[in-house]
Design brief:
Elements: H1 3-14, H2 22-45, H3 54-66, H4 71-80
């Protein structure tokens, strides 16, 4: 199960419990873990050049992680672009 599917499932299970629902807290933990991992991958890709749009690159990496791609696959895809 990819993180994107897991978030959808937990969002559905949360129902109308709102921000403080148990399942919503798990969603926040998953998103925080993926955000930190995306930042780490982005920093490892920076080999001395600056990204023209850092937020865009970070969002691309974050979406790859949501789809369940590994860090190695993401690095290979990003270095090709």
């Amino acid at each position: 199960m990819t993180p994107r599917e897991e978030i959808k499932l937990k969002n559905m299970l949360n129902g109308s419990d709102g921000y403080y629902g148990t399942h919503n807290q798990f969603i926040i933990l998953i998103e925080k873990r993926l955000y930190d991992k995306a930042t780490k991958i982005m920093n490892s890709l920076n080999t001395g050049f600056l990204f023209s749009n850092e937020r865009y690159v970070h969002n691309i990496i974050y979406n790859f992680l949501l789809d369940g791609n590994s860090a190695k696959d993401i690095k290979n895809k990003m270095l090709i672009k």
